[in-house]
Predict the 3D structure of the following.
Amino acid sequence: MAVVSLREIVDRAFEQRYGVPAINIVNDLTLEAVLAGAVEARSPVIVQTSVKTVKSIGAEVLFAMWTAMTKDIDVPVTLHLDHCPDRAVISQCLEIGWNSVLFDASTLPVEENQRQTIEVVAEARRYGAHVEGEIEAIQGVEDGIGVDTETRRQSLDTALGFIRATGVDVFAPSIGNAHGVYSATPALDFQRVSDLVEATGTPIALHGGSGMTDAQFADLIARGCAKVNISTALKIEFMTSSLAFLKKAEAANKWDPPALFADVRSHIVALTTGLAQTFGSAGKAW
């Protein structure tokens, strides 16, 4: 199937009420491992890149990696730019070939956010790409973007007006979710998801998924959260598995980088297949 649009993946998931893992990769190893996990699970997957990752690797190099690794892939995959407040980076990624972007203007007044999001949607459409929008900054700083404290939640009418005026393809609401590691199981506003979906029919992106319970995932996905973001969990898996391997290498005084890479890769593949099972996307490739 290879690379498809965000809407092709999300619309199917929304209609059939399963969630698609939207996983933030950090380098070539994690990109390849997430794709391999999707193939193993026979699951569609949304590969996400943060602004920090785009800038650290370079947009051209990162997209070349993506193109090479997805050339012969046989499950549906798409490339998404996560939480980007920088219009120049959005334009760069769309021009190079990203399939979708999250224009994060959530720190701006809703009116200005809406005005600029309309412009981003029009720009994306020229490339056949899609746009995720949000009006409330989700608590937690991720890769240098975000806020430390919970922001005021906008009214349902304000959210509905934004979705309808902008024509965003996916909407990311604040429902008590947060980026990073939760100190306790989060208390989530499930009804807000149902209200948004019933009023607009727009697929919902669930942010701050790392640390939610399986029951919370199942409930939210059933209500219309078709795109489920995972970033912190991958970072933790990547670094803890690296640390464990390196401690063993130090104890044995055996230094073999390819063995380290293979070990870390196996953890990321397992993370991806596990998420596909949890979210119900395993076996849903077409």
Notes: The two ends are 7 Å apart (CA to CA). Residues 28 and 138 are 28 Å apart (CA to CA).
